[in-house]
Amino acid sequence: MGSMFELWIFVIQYIEMKVIPLSEGSFTIDATKVFVPFDTSKDSLQERNRGSLLVEVQPFLVITSSDILLLDTGLGFSINGQMQIHQNLAQHGINANDVTKVLLSHLHKDHAGGVSYRNRFGHYEAAFPNATYFVQERELNNAYELGFPSYLPDELSILDDTNRVVLLKDDEGWIDQYIHYQVTQGHSKFHQVFSIHTNNNILFFGGDDAPQLSQMKNRFVAKYDFDGKKCMELRKDWWEKGQQEHWTFLFYHDIASPSISL
């Protein structure tokens, strides 16, 4: 491991937890479920297809005293032959081999496209070879059943490797006694959320149940959710509890606010 990684280890001994947004850019998406790049400085949403949504695609790197965590894996796009998420990690001195755990909220292609990459022989390999992937078993089965366009089953095939994957079976539980997961059945049928607990700090990642700050503050039912009403009620409960307990929220699809601490 390089000197920059050693520096991260030195830093986290003092700050307990460091969060780095790994933005892959802004996109519009409509009923076709195609993510079209959007330049906020010059593009106009009115010129896109009716009903297009403007979103950021933004995995998160979380460095704790015991792990280098990746929360969701982005679209899996490549730039000049290298995965964009690998390039984003490198900009912060982290190699893909350094990631110890990958936590997957669900397996829609914009959240799980980066779990793997296709090598020069055309076979899929794990994008984070030393990491353990944590995924809901029922979500994986659902992804295979529903398939394209929301899911890309071929790219998810590496999650069948039980040597590197933990298939979570329960509706909630703990990973290494400091990462809590809970199945919500909100945005997707078996969507799950994570909260990371270190000392008195709680870091909350709601995936697509809680994708943007504005949705936390306003009661909003999204037609694209598996259970939009449930998502709305969950956001209300999380926001109230987060205010009481001073959570830090991470927002995967927020253009302006990747995180907020209460």
| Count of helix runs | 7
How many structural domains does the protein architecture include?
Answer: 1
Strand content: 25-35%
Largest sheet: 6 strands, mixed
Task: Provide the CATH architecture.
Answer: 4-Layer Sandwich
Note the gap between the termini: 35 Å
Helix-strand string: HEEEEEEEEHEHEEEHHEEEEEHHEE
Provide the structure class.
Answer: alpha+beta
The helix content is 10-25%
Strand order of the largest sheet: 1-5-6-9-12-13
Describe the structure in your own words:
The chain contains seven helices and 19 strands. It is 23% helix and 28% strand. The chain has a single domain, classed as Ribonuclease Z/Hydroxyacylglutathione hydrolase-like (Metallo-beta-lactamase, Chain A, 4-Layer Sandwich). It has a six-stranded mixed β-sheet with strand order 1-5-6-9-12-13. The longest helix has 18 residues. The chain starts with a helix and ends with a strand. By secondary structure, the protein is α+β, with helices and mostly antiparallel strands. The N terminus is likely disordered.
Q: What does the secondary structure layout of this molecule look like, with pairings?
A:
Blueprint: H1 3-15, E1 17-21, E2 26-29, E3 36-37, E4 53-56, E5 60-64, E6 68-71, E7 78-79, E8 82-83, H2 84-90, E9 101-103, H3 109-112, E10 116-118, E11 124-126, E12 132-136, H4 137-146, H5 153-156, E13 165-168, E14 172-175, E15 179-183, E16 192-198, E17 201-205, H6 213-217, H7 228-245, E18 248-250, E19 259-261
Parallel strand pairs: 6-9, 9-12, 12-13, 17-18
Antiparallel strand pairs: 1-5, 2-3, 2-4, 5-6, 7-8, 10-11, 14-15, 15-16, 16-17, 18-19
